[in-house]
Amino acid sequence: MVQTRFNDRKAFQNLNRLSKNLNEDKFHLKHMIQDKKRLENFSLKFDGFFYDFSKQRIDDRVMEELLNLARQAEAKKKFSQMVSGEIVNITENRAALHTAARGFIPDPANLTDMDVLSEINRVNSQIKEFSAKIHNSQIRSDSGKPFTDAVVIGIGGSYLGCEFVYTALKHCIEPKIKLHFLSNVDIDNFGQVIKTINPETCLWIVISKSYTTTETMANLKQVLLFLKNNKLDPSSHLVTVTAKGSPGDDPANKVLDSFHMFDFIGGRYSVTSAVGGLPLSLAFGFDIFTRFLKGCHAMDLHAVNAPEKQNIPLISALISIWNSNFLHYPAQAIIPYCSALSKLAPHVQQLYMESLGKGVTFDGNLIDYKTGIIIFGEPGTNAQHSFFQLAHQGSPFPVEFIGVVTPVYNKDQAGSNGVYNHQELWANMIAQAKALAMGKDDDNKAKYFTGNRPSSTLVINNLTPESIGMLLAFYEARTVYEGFILGINPFDQFGVELGKILASQIRDHIKQKNTDETYTFDSFDPATKFYLDTLFNGSL
Amino acid sequence: MVQTRFNDRKAFQNLNRLSKNLNEDKFHLKHMIQDKKRLENFSLKFDGFFYDFSKQRIDDRVMEELLNLARQAEAKKKFSQMVSGEIVNITENRAALHTAARGFIPDPANLTDMDVLSEINRVNSQIKEFSAKIHNSQIRSDSGKPFTDAVVIGIGGSYLGCEFVYTALKHCIEPKIKLHFLSNVDIDNFGQVIKTINPETCLWIVISKSYTTTETMANLKQVLLFLKNNKLDPSSHLVTVTAKGSPGDDPANKVLDSFHMFDFIGGRYSVTSAVGGLPLSLAFGFDIFTRFLKGCHAMDLHAVNAPEKQNIPLISALISIWNSNFLHYPAQAIIPYCSALSKLAPHVQQLYMESLGKGVTFDGNLIDYKTGIIIFGEPGTNAQHSFFQLAHQGSPFPVEFIGVVTPVYNKDQAGSNGVYNHQELWANMIAQAKALAMGKDDDNKAKYFTGNRPSSTLVINNLTPESIGMLLAFYEARTVYEGFILGINPFDQFGVELGKILASQIRDHIKQKNTDETYTFDSFDPATKFYLDTLFNGSL
């Protein structure tokens, strides 16, 4: 697949020129947002999902060229190819069919190697049945007691998305089974988790596609020892989510049940597969998980079908590219004015930075333009009292505000200063976007605000499984669109390999030292030797 | 105080020149770290606190000029002035005496306006007595039951530092009183907190210097309503941490007790004052808090006394300046290979970005150089499975690794691949720093790593109150040093004011609408009107 490079496209050149003019005062946001039609012209709504980009540093000409950029990259065509099961992850020779996990493939007959939808349906039926049996106590622990808690053992894509959705939904739905997460190989992560559960009523969900992920296997072994010490049979306390035929799928290793994951769904896009499906169905019931999938599916249909000009994930991908490649902002903050969405930023941080932090094009050439930026964020108003000083007066970065129209809590409210807490929250969200855009002059330069700092605002109506699904699928689609337009592969992650190789070399030496205390680390460079000696000495 | 501007200093010019040469291949980190003396020459140790900057893109000449920069800025002199109680926060006409909270003022007789140390000692004695009475059940709740939980109501500096220290220490010490945090004005934050506590055994700690912080007051009112609904007397369930004479210190508002905070300690530097002292003493006992203070004090003494060349906070501030102002990295990641330190990055994010994200110099001139960068981070190895793809192959950013030699968990360990989990953790930490520095060539450009990506490594021996104290005081001192060298005020935060003013205007209109439903938002711009109408409609 030979492509025109991103920065050789005609639209790129035009956008570069347009960005140079942008320093003229008339393009300051404080002027641009005076236009009465500004919000109308620079916002989109779809099915209870609202995206306001009126406070981005764009005008009609920029928007038109950005859309040209998407057209020249054939972004929509590639997105269609993705949902149809073509091999879009070319470096790994795989499809990227996370959208099929929501039950959607335009023409499933075209997929020759396996019947993707019936495989997905099979796993979902299995999840439905298993979680129902846990909830009605048909399946009980080795102690004979019903399960009350489940620990998800997984890292990265086997963890962050599920944690985001669980955290959001538990604000509105009381969990039937409480979830905990054991991700880090840090033994103190294990030490903390076991303080919070009762081993007799705890299920352990091991999630690893290959069933060789170092951290997950190390934690599994620690859990097996823990079960043994508590005289509990692992085959009554463990389930696995793993690829068909992996060691975790081996009938010789008896477990309660195994759920398959597929190589056509990558880790960071896997929340809607069994990776999220099993833990979330255990927590809230399979019907809630199904409602969540419906929300994702609605956004998928929008992402694949809406014309460029109305396509929210596509437009937001273009704006992200505009901000990073033309206006040279190095980061974007995601600030949900909603405590329930506190784990959204860490999830998107992985999704985005792992997908787009690439050094080569789709066709394997080194890149000389910007790909991927830093994503970080905390909920507002908390962020206002943390790092917004920098946002207003230090080096600028674009902000994505997220608002939820109706909160979950619906009992007695006291109010303060004549407004309710949720109103106070929204007053702040609205004010921050305005303050960043407008700025303020002041003779006292310590109180002077440059303004002209861009932001978007996303709004959903409420915290339902459907709207959380839309939010998840929105960020997935936007990430994929951005990859396609930048001409990079948003599905591989070769950048994590070198660290693994070096860690494995160091591990081999530690292993030798563990069996032979006279072994030395002299073959290493002085720094590596110093750290390993310190580790074995137990002190600096 | 008229100063030479940061970028007019001689050392600045020299550093600028040195940075230009740095693209020569011989300065690639893979070559620089081959020097057998590299670690020895570019690392510092003090009292169980180790700082390795050998994988930073510096050499002797750069280091010498950086030290000149510190000398020309009289950084150490200013630091001494700070700990001596001079008015270093000139825009707010205040001292910055967080170090005095650790019992340290070189010459207290010089302080004319109040006896700082005896005031601090008085509050600490009060904390000691109060927490002891809670622990031995001399003070009980209105229900007659002993207290089991406490909710900290505070935001920003009244919350993040305490949360960091609490999270770290609860890995090694079982809390006597469990802490919870109610920070966000989001009513769903309140809704979640009350699910986790029993109102009959819960103490509420209201932290606000002025006792007017919008979020904290709104949450307080909500809590008062909650106590009333539960038929509990607020005067038996509330304590306040606030300035002398504030509404929270008014004897007319009966509370269990009030603890003073002082205007010579700013919010983000206040963990060692009553802001952290009361909750942490309730959680772990006053003796543990005292040990924590000792760790801070040890680092304070080092920061004020160690010569430039051996001064860890000063050197690390210089390296941060080198990376942002000369090598133009826009961010820094803080990656503790330690789950217990999971809340360190959010705390440092506030401390650093609010202190250094400034637009004016100390003497009130607009700035034309970089001040403040983005701080973000997650624990390793989790971060490796999240955003390290970008760190290795996308746009580079410096990383600060943090290692703890001995973990807390000391029971049975299973091990995996011939190594224990903590060894695996360290193997990864060592490998990541190496991989970032070295890079790797590969004909397959998807597997090519540029390397030359800088990192530092901090090591502490173990998770004790003392070492957590050193870590906290290290980041405080480094932030202050960076501000002094950059010629900005690290103690004010005028950048948060504009948003507050605009929120207050919007609040006034919401208030009117709450009492008169025919009231319209027509006087606002269309975007603000749209958001407020949506909020009142309850739907998009």
UniProtKB/TrEMBL annotation, chains A, B:
Subcellular location: Cytoplasm
Gene Ontology BP term (one): gluconeogenesis
CDD domains: SIS_PGI_1, SIS_PGI_2
Presence of the UniProt keyword Isomerase in the record: yes
Native source species: Desulfobacula phenolica
Gene name tied to this protein: pgi
Reaction catalyzed: alpha-D-glucose 6-phosphate = beta-D-fructose 6-phosphate
Top-tier EC class: isomerase
Sequence similarity: Belongs to the GPI family.
Official protein name in the record: Glucose-6-phosphate isomerase
Function: Catalyzes the reversible isomerization of glucose-6-phosphate to fructose-6-phosphate.
GO cellular component: cytosol
GO molecular function: carbohydrate derivative binding; glucose-6-phosphate isomerase activity; monosaccharide binding
